[in-house]
Amino acid sequence: MIQPLGIGFPYIAQLPPDLYRSSLMSFVEVTPETICRQRAADRDVAIEIVPDQLDQARQTCADLPIVVHGVELSIGSAQGWNPAYIDMLDTFQALWPFVWHSEHLGFQTIPGDNGTTLEVGVPLPVPPTKEAADLIAQRAAEICRRYKVPFLLENPAYYIADLPSDPEIGDDIGLISAIMRQSGCFLLLDLHNVHCNALNHGIDPFATIDRAPLDRVVEIHVAGGASRDGFWMDGHNGPVPGRVWDLLEYTLARAPNVAGVVFEMLDEFAVRLGVDAIANELQHAATIWNRCRRRAA
Amino acid sequence: MTLLDFQTALGRLVRAPDGSDPLRSLRLTDHERTRLDSLIRSAGYRFTVEVQRSWCVGRATSAGYLTLSILPTDLRTRLLDEWTNSGGGTSSFFAAEAETLLDFIAAHIPNPSHELTVCRLEQATLRANEGVATFIAPDPVELDRSPCLLGRGRHAGIANFHGEPHPVVSALLAHKPLPPVSSIAEVTVLFAPGLDHLCRPASAAEADLWQALTGLLELTELLRRGHHREDVAAMLQCGALEYANDPCAP
């Protein structure tokens, strides 16, 4: 069991550092790519940590523990994951150790011409097939061995409903369960993504949570979104909808190993939303967290 | 259908749905093609493409912000459409996106024009800024080694102003219309990570040297063509030029 950290918030360089020194959060979720640049290295591409930006992030986060939430691994790409991300994370861990780290269950690269790799530009869902489960589980297990801290995969929001599937896997929750079972990795349960999928595909979100491997949930994301063209978007662009707070309370009562809840926001929207509104969301999360912890005790 | 084939098909379809035969070279049965046809008619697929385009346009708009902001609306929209339709805007890394996008824009706007000048200025500024944190002036002694292969600095650039730079920059800062293009005076500004404020006017000799180095050249060849060693040394010192490979690599 991982020592609970409490309520966390992403590191966003544009926000006032005082926010991270308040009592509103007890850990910070860092996306290393936000303090990196990409550099051509021979025929490949390297992801380099920018020293100044790392220093600024460390000063802002001060003594708070950090967890890592990566975006560039592309663990579900059949042609191979992104080795530049792995190299960068090796360096990052040596410079700034993290309690756990996570990535998105999806793929964002495909083969290009002449052995090149093309970025799709948006993460796409992995079809719930045995081939995908086996491939990702093997990679997740390799990552667990490499970094020796818990590795979490995040359930995605998806808009395409009719992906190829195998009956023994079933759907996205079946895929997650198979990967967790085979690899020993953990789940970052994004409740806003559960909410998105429920609204967009007519699924009961509470039933989704009941089917998830709740004993593997180490971190929870809550976030806001927006409605567009008949879909609820995973926008990370505003306050958390009431239904997602309900899902948080429901999940915390059932998932015994949750160690942290993060209110997730994208940089540009966090600046627009402002510190006061962010503080309100963090306090709301803390209220639910504390209430559920007291009940569990 | 293998996972690789499915992902390749879906990725190509989402990335550039108007492109030529996204399913080329994939080993798909008729049933699998029918299934993909059905998938791309779904509302969820169309929305996924819409989200992808929105992300790519957002990245591109941010990466080429200054240049795009001075282009006429219809040209800006057309260039962004062409860029994202050809697979642009997919990199999450700002500098990588900016470098390729600004080259793309430069190839599609009039030459000479203030817009092209601003495009090159934005690209050169981003490059120099990207290199400043890690820049170490190379050892000039390496110039004496033979062969000594030289190239343009990775974090350097040049912008040619058609007229005095000041009125153009003032108009940009004030969000006012750009002055007419002057056919008389041309001022070349050099950008490099080792320069104070990252830029300064380039001498005619430096501008010529930059133009000569569209590819890698040996120092002896540059000297044979009439360029001067002291200009090469000065441009190396500020990162406008670089040693290209061993044994001269810094």
Structural notes for this entry:
The complex is a heterodimer of chains A (297) and B (250). Chain A has 297 residues and is of the alpha/beta class. In chain A, helix 3 crosses helix 4 and helix 7 packs parallel to helix 9. Helix content of chain A is 38%, strand content 23%. The mean pLDDT of chain A is 95. Chain A is built from 9 helices and 14 strands. Chain B has 11 helices and 6 strands. In chain B, a hairpin with a 7-residue loop joins strand 3 and strand 4. The longest helix of chain B has 21 residues. Chain B starts with a helix and ends in a 7-residue tail after the last strand. At the A-B interface, strand 3, strand 7, strand 8 and helix 3 of A face helix 1, helix 2, helix 3 and helix 6 of B.
Quick structural gist:
With 297 residues, chain A is an alpha/beta fold. Helices cover 38% and strands 23% of the residues of chain A.
Radius of gyration of chain B over all CA atoms, rounded: 23 Å
Largest β sheet strand count, sense and barrel closure of chain B = 3 strands, antiparallel
Order of helices and strands of chain A: EEEEHEHEEEHEHEHHEEEHEHH
Molecular shape of chain A? globular
- Distance from first to last alpha carbon of chain A: 16 Å
Largest sheet of chain A: 8 strands, parallel, barrel
Query: How many separate helices of chain A?
Result: 9
Strand content of chain B: 5-15%
State the low-pLDDT regions of chain B, or none.
Answer: 246-250
| Major sheet strand order of chain A | 1-2-5-6-9-10-11-14
Write down the secondary-structure element order of chain B: HHHHHHHEEHEEHEHHE
- Identify the quaternary structure here: heterodimer
- Work out the helicity level of chain A: 25-40%
The most extensive interface between chains reads:
A-B, 43 and 39 residues
Radius of gyration of chain A, CA atoms, in whole angstroms: 18 Å
